[in-house]
Amino acid sequence: MGTGICLVPERNPLLLAKEIATLDHFSGGRFILGIGAGWLKEETEIMGGDFPHRWAQTRDSIFAMKELWTKDEAEYHGRYYDFPPVRSFPKPAQKPHPPIFLGGSAKNVFKRVVEWGDSWMPSLPSVKEVAQGRAALDSLAAAAGRDSGSIEVMAFGRPGQFRDRETIKDLERAGASRVTVWLDQTSGREALAEMERIAQSVLY
């Protein structure tokens, strides 16, 4: 279970932290927080975001939510979010919190992943793009003194993409540790039958 993606600057971190923790709690620790900062200026601003500095706002929000997820009584005093000691429950099942996957291919995405994220989640990537991104993450992690093995890469595809075993193996060799496999059918027996067909072509 996850988001692909959640536009963080358009949401209040006090509410978002509780929603994410609730989903992680009831899914038994299976939630992935895929995030972005948005691209549509009018949408971002009408929802309360600072469009020119939306990634700085996203960072502020993530740091605030980490406090809420990991402390019984949390407070935060940042540029965009400032709140006194509060109690936020439930806590996520995953410790210290659900993994944070940064989407996109913006100029500074790799620096952001290394600084405060858990994974890079490129959209519709080629095998070459995954390999280049993995190399960039490894280099930046080494410079920052962070274990590059703690950083994942998830290839975020589209319906019809990543449906065969060899393509997924190529992505794995390039440095991806996860891929999304979309269903064309969304309910009932048709969806179950499609899942079985995908499993036959990808897993076995």
CATH fold assignment: TIM Barrel
Helix percent reads 40-55%
- From the spread of the alpha carbons, the general shape counts as globular
How would you sum up the major sheet? 6 strands, parallel
Radius of gyration, rounded?
18 Å
Based on helices, strands and strand pairing, what is the structural class? alpha/beta
Number of domains: 1
Number of strands: 8
**First CA to last CA: what distance?**
23 Å
CATH class: Alpha Beta
Q: What's the order of the H and E elements?
A: EHEHHEEEHEHEHEH
Structure in words:
- With 204 residues, the protein is an alpha/beta fold.
- It has a single domain, classed as Luciferase-like domain (TIM Barrel).
- The protein is built from seven helices and eight strands.
- Helix 1 crosses helix 3 (54-70), helix 4 (109-116) packs across helix 5 (127-144) and helix 5 runs parallel beside helix 6 (165-174).
- It is globular, with a radius of gyration of 18 Å.
- The chain starts with 5 loop residues before the first strand and ends with a helix.
